[in-house]
Design goal:
The complex is a heterodimer of chains A (395) and B (170).
Chain A lengths: L15 H10 L2 H11 L11 H10 L6 E6 L8 H8 L1 H15 L3 E6 L7 H13 L15 E6 L9 H8 L23 E5 H13 L1 H4 L10 E8 L5 E6 L4 H8 L6 E4 L5 E4 L17 E5 L5 H15 L5 H18 L5 H17 L3 H24 L5
Parallel strand pairs in A: 1-2, 1-4, 2-3, 5-9
Antiparallel strand pairs in A: 5-6, 7-8, 7-9
Helix pairs in contact in A: 1-5, 1-8, 2-3, 5-8, 11-12, 11-14, 12-13, 12-14, 13-14
Chain B lengths: L2 H17 L7 H12 L4 H11 L3 H10 L11 E6 L2 H5 L2 H12 L12 E6 L11 E3 L2 E3 L4 H12 L13
Parallel strand pairs in B: 1-2
Antiparallel strand pairs in B: 1-3, 3-4
Helix pairs in contact in B: 1-3, 3-4, 6-7
Classes of the chains: A alpha/beta (395), B alpha+beta (170).
Chain lengths: 395, 170
C-alpha cells in the first residue's frame, strides 16, 4: 500500500503529545485563527471552512457543547478514514481535544459506522492510553481543561454521514436529516452547540496548529489549500490511500496510481461526478471537481451504464425516504437506467429523466438527494452514444 | 422465545436504559445489544424497550426498520455481508456471491435452516482497494475469491460453541 509513499501533511511526522500540549498553551482564538489562516475546509466532502464552524460553535450560547467526529465513512470508494482510524488514532483523539478546547466543549463523541466495529477495540485502547497519559479526561496536561470522548456505534445507514442525520441517530431517532437552519453549531446534539467534523479534518487541524498555516498553504491551490487523502480504487495498478496536494489534475493522479488508460474517473464517489477522459486535465479541488477523497478508476472496457445502475441502486437503498424528490426520484432514475439497459428508452424520455435529475438537485432536502443524480447526469451526458450503441435491440 | 428468556432480556433492557437515565440517546445502544443477543428485535422486545424508555412502541419500530444492522426477522448466528458497491462489484463480487450461495445452499436475503448463516448484500464496506470484501459478523475479509469462500464459512461452522442454540454469538 502506498500510504506512506509521500509524507506531506497528514502523513508527516508529529509528536502528538508535544503538539497537543503546545496547542493547549495558546489562547483559544489564536487556535481558531491559525486554522482560519490555513484555509482548511471540511475533509468529509462538503468542504465547509473548519474555522468558521469552530468559531460559530465557540461563540454560540450554551453551557454544554459537543465535538463529534464523523467516522461514518460510507461514500462508495472512500476508505481513507479507515486507515486513519487504524494507524493514526492518537492524532485523531488529539485533534478532537484541540477542537474541544477551541470551541469550549468538554464532551466528544466518535460516531463509528457499524461496518467498522472491528476497529472499535483499538480505538477504545487508544482512548484509555491517552487518558493514562493525561491527554484526555480531567486536567489535560495539567491545565484546567477537561475533555473526554466516547464511541457511539452506527447501525448501518449511509445517510448518517450527513451531520444532522448523524445527530438524530445519536439522539436515538431514525437518521433523517433536519431542516437547517438552525445549524448544529448552534442547535446540535441534545440541543447544544455542536461541531461535527470528519476524521481527516481533526488530524489535519492538529498538524496545522503545530506546524503553522503558512507551511500548510505551501501545498494546494489558493482556494483549496493543503493536501488531501485520496482513496483510490477500481481499474488501476496501485489502489490505496494517497496523500496528494489539492489541485492535482486527474491525469497526474492517474499517473501516480497506474491508471493511465482509464476511460473515466468517478471523483467523489456515488454522489460525485463521472469525469470522462477528455476532461482529465481538470483539477481535483473545491473550485473544480470536488471530492471527499473517493477516486474510482474505470478502465477502457468498463460498461458505464452498469456503473450508473450500481450507483443508482445504492441511492435507492440508502435514501432515507423523508422527502419526495429523493425517495421517488432515485427509483424513477433507476427504472430509466433499466429501460436504457434493455434498449427501450426514448431520447425524449431520457431528456425528461435528466430534467428530473436537475429537479432533484435543487428540490431535495439534504445532500444525499441533491447529489444522487450527479453520477446519472454525468454518465448520460458523457457516454450517451456508447450506451445507446451497446443496447440496440435491432441487433 | 421462552418466558424466562424474555424476562432475562427485559431485565437487561431495563438495566441498560437506566444507565442512560432512560434518555432516548440510549435507545440505539439498547437495540444493538438486543440484536446481538437474540439476533433480532422481536415485537415483545420492542414493547419492553418502549416501556423502559417511556416511548410508544411504534417509535421503537420506526428506528429498528430504519437501520440495516437492526432487524425484526431472526438472523443467523453468523451474518455474511458481501459488499455490492461499485469497486467490489468490478473486482468480481458476483462470482463470490454465486459461490456463497452454493456453499450455504441459500439465496441472498435468506438464512440457513439450522439458523447458522444469513446471507446479505451490503453497501460499501470501505475496503474498495482490496475488493471483493465481506463481513462475517464483525470480522472483515478482503480480496475474497470464490475458492476462499468455503474455508471462511467452515471456520465459522467449526467454531467452538457455534452450535449452542442460545446466548451470544460465539
Amino acid at each position: 500500500m502506498s500510504k506512506a509513499d509521500k509524507k506531506l501533511v497528514i502523513f508527516s511526522d508529529i509528536d502528538v503529545e508535544k503538539a497537543l500540549k503546545n496547542a493547549l498553551q495558546k489562547p483559544r482564538p489564536d487556535l481558531i485563527s491559525e486554522v482560519r489562516e490555513s484555509g482548511l475546509k471540511g475533509r468529509g466532502g462538503a468542504g465547509f471552512p473548519t474555522a468558521v464552524k469552530w468559531n460559530l460553535a465557540a461563540s454560540a450560547q450554551g453551557d454544554r457543547k459537543f465535538v463529534i467526529c464523523n467516522a461514518d465513512e460510507g461514500e462508495p470508494g472512500t476508505f481513507k478514514d479507515r486507515v486513519l482510524l487504524t494507524d493514526y488514532a492518537e492524532q485523531l483523539v488529539a485533534g478532537m481535544v484541540l477542537a474541544g478546547y477551541a470551541v469550549g466543549a468538554k464532551e466528544g463523541i466518535i460516531y463509528l459506522r457499524a461496518e467498522y466495529t472491528y476497529l472499535r477495540k483499538n480505538l477504545e485502547a487508544t482512548l484509555e492510553k491517552m487518558r493514562g497519559r493525561k491527554l484526555l479526561g480531567k486536567k489535560i496536561s495539567g491545565k484546567d481543561f477537561e475533555f473526554d470522548i466516547h464511541i457511539h456505534m452506527g447501525s448501518g445507514a449511509y445517510i448518517c454521514g450527513e451531520e444532522t442525520a448523524l445527530i438524530e441517530s445519536l439522539e436515538g431517532h431514525r437518521g433523517e436529516p433536519r431542516n437547517r437552519p438552525p445549524f448544529p453549531v448552534t442547535v446540535g446534539y441534545l440541543g447544544c452547540p455542536t461541531s461535527v467534523n470528519n476524521v481527516e479534518t481533526f488530524i489535519t487541524a492538529l498538524h496545522i496548529v503545530e506546524k503553522g498555516a503558512k507551511w500548510f498553504k505551501t501545498y494546494g491551490t489558493e482556494k483549496s489549500t493543503g493536501t488531501k487523502l485520496f482513496s483510490v480504487s477500481g481499474d488501476c495498478d496501485k489502489p490505496g490511500v494517497y496523500e496528494l496536494p489539492m489541485g492535482i489534475t486527474i491525469k497526474k493522479l492517474l499517473e501516480t496510481v497506474g491508471g493511465e488508460d482509464a476511460k473515466a474517473v468517478q471523483v467523489g464517489g456515488a454522489s460525485g461526478t463521472c469525469v470522462p477522459r477528455k476532461d482529465f486535465d481538470r483539477a481535483i479541488a473545491y473550485e473544480d471537481v470536488s471530492t471527499g477523497g473517493s477516486i474510482i478508476v474505470f478502465g477502457p472496457f468498463r460498461d458505464m451504464l452498469e456503473v450508473a445502475i450500481n450507483f443508482m441502486e445504492f441511492f435507492c437503498d440508502e435514501s432515507c425516504g423523508q422527502c419526495t424528490p429523493c425517495r421517488l426520484g432515485t427509483e424513477t432514475l433507476l427504472e430509466g437506467l433499466d429501460m436504457l439497459d434493455e434498449g427501450k428508452c426514448s431520447l425524449k424520455y431520457l431528456r425528461e429523466l435528466c430534467s428530473l435529475g436537475e429537479t432533484m438537485q435543487v428540490a431535495s432536502k439534504c445532500g444525499l438527494g441533491q447529489s444522487a443524480p450527479n453520477a446519472f447526469l454525468s454518465i448520460v451526458e458523457n457516454f450517451k452514444s456508447e450506451i445507446l450503441d451497446s443496447r440496440c435491440t435491432c441487433r | 422465545m421462552l418466558a424466562s428468556e424474555r424476562d432475562q432480556l427485559k431485565a437487561e433492557i431495563i438495566k441498560m436504559a437506566k444507565k442512560h437515565d432512560q434518555h432516548r440517546s440510549g435507545l440505539i445502544p439498547v437495540l444493538q445489544h438486543v440484536q446481538n443477543v437474540s439476533r433480532h428485535i422481536s415485537p415483545e422486545a420492542m414493547q419492553d424497550i418502549a416501556e423502559a424508555f417511556k416511548i410508544h412502541p411504534v417509535e421503537v419500530q420506526g428506528v429498528v426498520s430504519f437501520y440495516s444492522f437492526l432487524s425484526t426477522e431472526k438472523k443467523g448466528k453468523f451474518i455474511v455481508r458481501l459488499c455490492r458497491t461499485i469497486s467490489c462489484d468490478m473486482a468480481g463480487k458476483e462470482a463470490v456471491a454465486n459461490q456463497l450461495e452454493n456453499e450455504l445452499d441459500i439465496e441472498f436475503g435468506e438464512t440457513t435452516d439450522d439458523g447458522m448463516f444469513t446471507l446479505e448484500f451490503t453497501n460499501c464496506l470501505g475496503m474498495c482497494d482490496q475488493g471483493p470484501a465481506m463481513l462475517v459478523n464483525e470480522d472483515i475479509y478482503a480480496k475474497v475469491t470464490p475458492e476462499k469462500v468455503a474455508d471462511i464459512i467452515d471456520s465459522y461452522r467449526n467454531r467452538f460453541g457455534a452450535h449452542v442454540t442460545q446466548g451470544e454469538h460465539a
